[in-house]
Amino acid sequence: MKLSRRELLKAAAVTGLAVPLTGCEGLTSEFLKRTGADLPDSLSVSDGVNIDPIFHLLSRAGYGPAPGDMEHARDIGAEEWLEEQLQPDKIDDKVCDLRSKRFETLHLDPGTCYEFKRPVLRDELSRRMIVRATYSKKQLLEAMVEFWDDHLNIYIEKGDCIYLKPADDRLVVRKHALGKFRDLIRESATSPAMLVYLDGNQNRKAGKDGIPNENYARELLELHTLGVHGGYTQQDVFEVGRCLTGWRLHTPWQRAKVYFDKDEHDDGEKHVLGHVIPAGGGEQDLERVLDIVCNHRSTAHHIATKMVARFVSDDAPASLVKKTADEFTRTKGDIKSLVRTVFNSPEFYAAKGSKFKRPVQYVVFSLRMLGADTYARGEILEYLTRMGQAPFQHPFPDGYADRANQWTSNLLWRWNYALALPANKIEGTKVPLDELIAAVTKPDDSHHAVKDMFAYFTGRRPNDNESIALSNHQEKQLAGGAWRRPYRQWRHQARHSSLLFYTETWRSNSS
């Protein structure tokens, strides 16, 4: 649900804060606290030593459970939670929408975005991504948006892409993230941002023996549809390049609006993957190409493999890849059907604790689990840059990597972040650690409190070796009669124990 300006002004009156609407971050946070969008008084934790299946689902099909999410998902069950997430338009997301209104440039058309400086757009794009991933109740949608943003990667530092990506994110990726694959690829093919990034706007009819600009044609086949081993040839790339000639951007008149220039289009006969595209097709040549590649069996296999590798295991189980590819073919690329196949599979639940969190997932997971109040200001983005995953800044068309070995060589900044966040050492981000500890632990059972916190963050109770390590650390931290102190004083000391499981026992950052 979107909140109107009138509702936002009403919120300001309720909070009693004389803060201008343009500087409403503090106002918004205060308003949400006073209207109940705050940490629950009591939170349940997992009982077994194996990862809770609900915790596993929420950690993979989203960015991890925020306080209260586990209770809701347990009440309705895993399958019903997934079905709820597959209908994002029916989810009340006004808290996230209120926070996201802060980033007003992202709602503008591409031409208007040229009125803003590049650092403003870079800042708002990156911060809005983190804020929505952290606070949205449409967790599956946000996870799929990140997946497709990688699949259809656009490097915002190339040319004018930074002015065009906000509209691409809104009208291409977010609009079709849970829709039909062909619709997604069709919108991406003529997105102003993609036309600039992969030089489609420079692809024009060549002479008799000339060569079209093949950049987008190659990535369409290699990355977006068939995959590198999908069975296409260099001749197919050449022919697809010919089919895609003539797409342009207006400049400066109607700036960034896409149009088709028939005079720049190669209107001769083409041959793509064994199919003949007759001469005289004009702009319909694009539609013919997309029909061919989006319905190709190699595309079904490629997309299935990428989805399973992202959400299940780096080494995608062949059995689940086949089931997902078959579903892609059966439904003609219905993304919701693919999601159901992946997350309802036994292979998915057998892969608990096997994925290494990418930096964005790690950062957002921690913000959600800790109930943080943030607008992802500079320090959060700096940590992501240091970890290697600055949003929208991967320079190559393949998007950020999914495999763990791409991320395990740079852990120092994760540990620095893990130490700074719960200690409230990150400017502009506040964590209610005392309230969280009180909600998770029992006042009369301080001896097991750190194990409760471990279970809250990992979705399982510590095993025997982990219990010994936790107890030994706890005794060192709380030596000198700490256990006999009043509970309020113990909670203050528990900050140190919380850092232990956050950095040491969760060092693998797995999910």
What does this molecule look like?
The protein is mainly α. Among the domains are: 198-294, no CATH class; 297-350. The protein is 53% helix and 3% strand. It contains 26 helices and 6 strands. The chain has helices at residues 5-15, 25-34, 53-60, 69-76, 78-85, 94-100, 110-113, 118-135, 139-151, 161-176, 181-189, 192-197, 215-224, 234-243, 284-294, 297-311, 318-331, 335-343, 346-350, 359-369, 378-387, 412-420, 433-440, 449-458, 464-477, 487-505, and strands at residues 247-249, 258-260, 270-272, 275-277, 373-374, 429-430. Strands 1-2 form a two-stranded antiparallel sheet. Strand 3 and strand 4 (275-277) form a beta hairpin. Helix 4 crosses helix 5 (78-85), helix 13 packs across helix 14 (234-243) and helix 24 crosses helix 26. The longest helix is centred in the last third of the chain and has 19 residues, at 487-505. The chain is globular. 44% of the residues are buried. Residues 1-22 and 480-508 have low confidence and may be disordered.
Low-pLDDT regions: 1-22, 480-508
Instruction: Please give the alpha-carbon distance between the first and last residues.
Output: 30 Å
| Oligomeric state of the chains in view | single chain
Number of strands: 6
Strand content: under 5%
* Spatial strand sequence of the major β-sheet: 1-2
Helix content: 40-55%
Spatial shape: globular
